[in-house]
Specification:
64% of the residues lie in helices and 0% in strands. With 287 residues, the chain is an all-alpha fold.
């Protein structure tokens, strides 16, 4: 808490005395916030602990900066942000906190109640305050979370309205499917999804054969949506998976390019067979 307070004092001083910090607004900071968030995501996928710590600080700076701007306008301050978040987390976890703890200065969680023979993905939680119902699985927690959100005064009016419109498409598709799952709209058996994937691939190939670009684009979207759905059902993150493949492709292609520079032969003059041979070399070098 001392470290956080010291940081807020520094932010106050910068806002008062630094020409750059003085002139910042929500609008001017927004592009930098997006960049900092992506830099944090990059550090996370690399599992670079040093960079994760550093980038978390950069994101925290932006969060507090927005609160500082709002405080100057007498709209809200950092304490309001924390209080609202605490209230929301307690409200949405009735299996951990009794409703009476929502505005408590020092909220006390309910006693822990272990599940009967659960696994690491289905940890036991505390009994709900008053109704003695046990929430014992991650799935139940998520389902309760969505139901509580719909009941909140300023919550989402529809199940899918909580998915930000500006999310990247792969992440958005995953979140749409996940939210639908939380209200029971999902495959009964995850294996059944593969029939849908194959069906969408067949429809895509049929439109490609007809050379209909507009319909092919729609079918490509349906196919990608089905593949992302399959990834979700098998607890794989499609965005992380695609980013790993992007990095792998870059490393292998850079190997080809480095070889072309070494021998003084431009890539445009190399045959596909030459490049494929180098690609295979790069592949073998991977750990």
């Amino acid at each position: 808490m001392r470290a956080f307070g010291r940081f807020l004092d520094v932010l106050d001083a910068l806002r008062a005395n630094c020409p750059w910090d003085k002139k910042q607004t929500n609008e001017s900071l927004r592009p930098n916030t997006i960049e900092e968030t992506y830099e944090l995501c990059d550090a996370l996928i690399k599992n670079d602990i040093h960079d994760i710590c550093k980038e978390l600080g950069d994101v925290l700076l932006h969060i507090c900066f927005y609160a500082k701007i709002a405080e100057e306008k007498e709209q809200f301050d950092m304490a309001d942000v924390c209080d609202a978040l605490t209230r929301k987390m307690i409200t949405r976890h009735p299996h951990v906190y009794h409703p009476s703890q929502i505005d408590a200065e020092d909220p006390k969680p309910l006693p822990y109640v272990p599940s009967d023979g659960g696994n690491s993905d289905e940890a036991g939680c505390a009994k709900s305050g008053g109704n003695q119902e046990k929430v014992t699985t991650v799935t139940q927690v998520l389902q309760n979370w969505e139901q509580i959100k719909l009941k909140e005064k300023d919550g989402n009016e529809r199940v899918l309205s909580g998915v930000p419109a500006a999310l990247p498409s792969v992440i958005k598709a995953y979140r749409i499917q996940d939210k639908a799952r939380n209200v029971g709209f999902d495959w009964e058996k995850r294996e059944d999804v593969w029939q849908k994937v194959r069906e969408e691939l067949d429809e895509l190939e049929a439109e490609l054969d007809r050379d209909d670009k507009e319909r092919s684009t729609k079918e490509l979207g349906d196919f990608l949506f089905a593949v992302i759905n399959a990834a979700r059902l098998y607890k794989l993150n499609p965005d992380n998976a695609l980013e790993m493949t992007n990095r792998k492709f870059i490393e292998r292609f850079n190997y080809i390019e480095a070889h072309s520079i070494k021998i003084g032969k431009p890539l445009t003059e190399m045959s596909l067979d030459e490049m494929e041979a180098l690609w295979q070399e790069a592949k073998k070098m991977e750990s």
